[in-house]
Amino acid sequence: xxxxxxxxxxxxxxxxxxxxxxxxxxATGPAASATSAGRPRGAAAExxxxxxxxxxxxxxxxxxxxxxxxxxxELTALLDxxxxxxxxxxxxxxxxxxxxxxxxPYEPWSQWLTGTQGRDPGWDPLAFAVEEAHARGLAxxxxxxxxxxxxxxxxxxxxxxxxxxxxxxxxxxxxxxxYYNPGLPEVRAFVQRAMLDxxxxxxxxxxxxxxxxxxxxxxxxxxxxxxxxERHGGGFTSRAAWRRDNVDRLVRETAAGIQRVxxxxxxGISPFGVWRxxxxxxxxxxxxxxxxxxxxxxxxxxxxxxxxxxxxxxxxLYWAIGHSAVDYATLVSWWSGxxxxxxxxxxxxxxxxxxxxxxxxxxxxxxKELTRHLTLAGKHPQVRGHVFFAAKEVAADPAGAMARVVAxxxxxxxxxxxxxx
Length: 421
Known about the structure:
By secondary structure, the chain is α/β, with parallel strands linked by helices. The protein has a single domain, classed as Glycosidases (TIM Barrel). It has 14 helices and 11 strands. The strands form 2 sheets. The protein has an 8-stranded parallel beta barrel with strand order 1-2-3-7-8-9-10-11, surrounded by 6 helices. Strand 1, helix 2 and strand 2 form a beta-alpha-beta unit. Helix 2 (68-84) packs parallel to helix 4 (125-135) and helix 12 (369-377) packs parallel to helix 14 (401-409). The longest helix is centred in the middle third of the chain and has 23 residues, at 239-261. The two termini are 28 Å apart. It comes from Streptomyces anandii. InterPro entries: Divisome_Glycosyl_Hydrolase (IPR052177), GH (IPR017853), GHL10 (IPR003790), TAT_signal (IPR006311).
């Protein structure tokens, strides 16, 4: 998933903004945040989103160590691109690797800003992003990664005061990365406190998780949570069931926490697109995916939607129409069935980044593939919008696919969706 951010603000005005936000923003809440700038009165609500990824400087900032003014300028350019494409929502990655793009009392400043984890960049990117998004009529959802700690396995490279260094028993090495252990109740409580700090301080329109819960499987490797399972897994029939319960608890508790500190803010999750193949479970999709979220990431995404635990779901349907093993059309139909009669809104995650990339197959060399996705999805009333990965491609549009989507489907503006009861 992807990053976003840039534009200017003085340090003095930012500190004043943060002070006011603690009281006034909580009172106004997200419903008053994103304005209808430039939209005709009565424009219909529809999700038109983009992910703005900051991890590894995927979308923003373009590299570490830029001046604050350069970073702000790059961020506002991406927000302007969203407006130009008639999008209305930005998923801004603010906690990519157990760090923060705001002054957090729990975790260090992100390394993706200055190049050094824990170094103050001299401004508040989240405060700025919220303010500038709302000034443009864009809703802003803060995108958090709950358990990923680092893209390497050396704790000594983390900031000296990093919680993962103070609590080495919280951390698991797996697949060349560091993760917090989802099976520890103290970890689950900590990551929620860290995330809800931003929810309480800033007038966010939503909170967003992507597909990372337990890590993706690695050949020949096992996620080493045996000790945690022995200590906390009593009463479960298997370690897999216990792991799913750990993720379920995070989702339910986060949803409750968001409504406690910022009533009306939305909570959405963007999982990998396949819950289970039908060959594994008759309730699954007619696909042959190599990963299944229920079995491999221990995320029961189908249940979260059917039970209405989350406000929206954005399955990442990053395959072409007619793909031999995982067909976009098949999954749109399957997810529409899951969302039928649920309070959880269904949006579709779209692989804009694949357009024009010859390595992704013949379908993606055709700039019309993405617009065909929206046409097909539009035949399913449960699909209430789309989110595009990612901001860099929204802005540059090297294959012209985004321009075609706008011409074919986004001729008029649309209001960002609000939370339904």
